[in-house]
Design goal:
The protein is of the alpha+beta class and 435 residues long. It has two domains: 357 residues, Outer membrane efflux proteins (OEP), CATH 1.20.1600; 70 residues. It is built from ten helices and six strands. The strands form two sheets. The protein has a four-stranded antiparallel beta sheet with strand order 2-3-5-6, with no helix packed on it. Helix 2 runs parallel beside helix 3, helix 2 runs antiparallel to helix 4 and helix 7 runs antiparallel to helix 8. The two termini are 32 Å apart.
Length: 435
């Protein structure tokens, strides 16, 4: 039997007709695992939406800081008056006027600015979370597609061997050297293999289609894993060190802590509602002589300006502020509980992931030993066939058994890589492992 890398190369030739039929419905993108991860980080739909949320969070900082930014409004209060020169808004009629206003001291609004900054930081963390989730999904789908391609290759070879066994058995039955039931058994084996082949081909199409969607391509496109001598994913060997690193680097915990900090700032914002507020007030007006100011004022000045500050001191602010603060304190308490629960979940998930990885590695070793045994048996059968001691049907049956062992080995290898990917995701090393 050909080595592992030759199996991968042969799979491209065997699956090519399937991919050519799919290309009529969409484009087939061939890429390595590293390339797929790079595309996912840029154009995965969830990641793109997280970047849009980050932009909204940055804009919210500008919105929250707006009261502390001076704004100037210009216009005219031009009007004809009869009697005392005044207008409906209480200001004197003017040819031209300009006003400006901004907050000098507003502690609740200052806390809103701080909250907006914290939410912007949380949105940055959220992008990292979405990237991690997208990369993990892309890696698992890529490994699924890779596994399906290898399995289709091995199963096609097994089907060829079973077809030859069936033909040979039918010949022996016709010659009277085998019972008719043996022909039926061979036919059932062929039908079972064909059913498995159809199932695996369907799984291959689903995996490549799902991979294309995860990479942001249209639904009719496919992403085919490229043939490459890729090293297997390597997980950290120390379980305890991995737990400590996972707790220190967890983006889930950092997001919860950021949300908690925003809630604490919200509490302070509600508690600061009883503090005084100071606003800058400035105004300029150009008066005209046609409004008869000289008839009502001892001195007339065309250019008039005011500059000062307005003070607002809440005397009876109501009870709603305290209720809002109490609600925020309850939310903060819930976030503290969630932080503790997330830490426990990360620790438990990582221990289970390591157990699953060790179990998968052991299963892979058993499957490899079983495969080596089948290959040795095939070598013996071939030698005996050359000596005329073993019929060709037995040799073909041994070939089919060897291909079946290849399928089992591919399954355990796939499970091992998925288990390692899970460990790397929980420790935050998944991106670095594939780059």
């Amino acid at each position: 039997m050909a080595p592992y890398t030759e199996h991968m190369r042969a799979s491209v030739l065997l699956v090519a007709p399937l991919l050519s039929s799919m290309s009529a419905f969409g484009e087939v993108h061939v890429m390595t695992l590293k390339q797929a991860v790079a595309v996912a980080m840029e154009q995965n739909p969830d990641v793109v939406m997280a970047r849009l949320d980050r932009q909204k969070a940055r804009d919210q900082i500008t919105i929250a800081h707006d009261p502390f930014t001076p704004k100037v409004f210009a216009g005219s209060g031009l009007a004809w008056t009869y009697g005392f020169p005044g207008t409906i808004d209480g200001n004197a009629p003017s040819i031209f006027q300009a006003k400006t206003q901004m907050s000098l001291f507003d502690r609740p609004q200052s806390y809103q600015v701080a909250i907006a900054n914290e939410q912007s930081r949380s949105s940055e963390i959220d992008i990292g979370l979405k990237q991690q989730e997208a990369i993990y999904r892309v890696i698992t789908l890529f490994l699924d597609a890779e596994q399906a391609t290898r399995s289709v290759t091995a199963l096609n070879r097994e089907l060829e061997n079973l077809d030859r066994v069936k033909s040979l058995v039918e010949t022996r039955v016709g010659e009277g050297r085998e019972l008719p039931i043996e022909s039926k058994k061979a036919n059932v084996n062929v039908l079972r293999a064909r059913l498995r082949s159809e199932t695996l081909n369907g799984n291959l199409i689903d995996s490549e289609s799902s991979l294309a969607l995860a990479l942001g391509y249209p639904a009719e496109d496919r992403v085919q894993p490229a043939t490459e001598d890729r090293a297997a994913l390597q997980a950290p060997t120390s379980e305890e060190t991995s737990v400590e690193r996972a707790l220190d680097e967890s983006l889930d915990l950092k997001k919860l802590q950021s949300n908690l900090q925003a809630k604490l700032l919200e509490i302070k914002s509600w508690q600061a509602q009883r503090l005084p507020k100071v606003n800058l007030v400035a105004q300029y007006a150009l008066f005209g002589t046609y409004n008869n100011y000289q008839d009502y004022f001892q001195k007339f000045t065309r250019n008039n300006a005011q500059l000062g500050a307005s003070f607002e001191i809440p005397l009876l602010a109501g009870r709603s502020h305290g209720a809002y603060a109490s609600q925020a304190e309850a939310d903060a308490a819930k976030l503290r509980i969630e932080v503790a629960r997330t830490r426990s979940r990360i620790t438990g998930d990582l221990h289970r992931a390591y157990q699953e990885m060790r179990r998968a590695d052991t299963a892979r070793e058993v499957a490899r030993a079983d495969l080596d045994l089948a290959r040795d048996q095939l070598s013996i059968d071939l030698a005996q066939y050359d000596e005329g001691r073993t019929p060709l049907a037995a040799v073909e049956a041994s070939r089919a058994t060897e291909n079946e062992k290849w399928l089992a080995y591919y399954d355990t290898q796939h499970a091992s890589e998925l288990a390692r990917a899970s460990v790397l995701r929980l420790t935050g090393n998944l991106v670095a492992a594939v780059q």
